[in-house]
């Protein structure tokens, strides 16, 4: 059985794990690509940059992240990531339900 994969104007994503408590996606963002600016009421996200360079916007503040660095997106935080370099940006995105986030990341 293969994972669900979808192409978007900014790149692609593939679901690697999808459970009631956690979803893991591989996100590839092309040069100049950026998904929509959004927020979530009941879940946090954790992004790990595995290739390229990410410019993350969290509540209107931009920060650059390099390979191996982690972006923590708390519940309710407006967020998006952008690729401003020539190389693809590849990241793993973990979507965690609120109770799991409190237990693992933000305690």
CATH superfamily: Jelly Rolls
Ranges where pLDDT stays below 50 over 5 or more residues in a row are none
Strand order of the largest sheet: 1-2-3-9-4-7
Order of helices and strands: EEEEEEEEEH
Shape field: globular
Kindly identify the CATH topology: Jelly Rolls
- Separation, N- and C-terminal Cα atoms: 36 Å
Mean pLDDT score: 89
User: So, CATH architecture?
Assistant: Sandwich
Structurally, the number of domains stands at 1
Q: What portion of residues is helical?
A: under 10%
**How many extended strands?**
9
Q: Over the alpha carbons, how many angstroms does the gyration radius reach? A: 13 Å
Largest β sheet strand count, sense and barrel closure: 6 strands, antiparallel
Class, according to the CATH hierarchy? Mainly Beta
- Beta content: over 45%
Number of helices: 1
Written description of the protein model:
This protein has one helix and nine strands; from the N terminus they run βββββββββα. With 107 residues, it is mainly beta. The strands form two sheets. The protein has a six-stranded antiparallel β-sheet with strand order 1-2-3-9-4-7. A hairpin with a 3-residue loop joins strand 2 and strand 3. The mean pLDDT is 89.
């Amino acid at each position: 059985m293969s994972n669900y994969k979808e192409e978007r104007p900014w790149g692609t994503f593939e679901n690697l794990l999808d459970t009631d408590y956690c979803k893991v996606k591989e996100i590839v963002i092309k040069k100049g690509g950026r998904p929509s600016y959004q927020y979530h009421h009941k879940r946090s996200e954790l992004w790990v940059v595995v290739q390229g360079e990410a410019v993350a916007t969290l509540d209107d503040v931009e920060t650059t992240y390099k390979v191996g660095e982690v972006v923590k997106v708390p519940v309710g935080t407006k967020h998006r990531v952008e690729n401003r370099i020539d190389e693809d940006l590849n990241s793993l995105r973990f979507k965690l339900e609120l109770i799991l986030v409190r237990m693992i990341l933000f305690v």
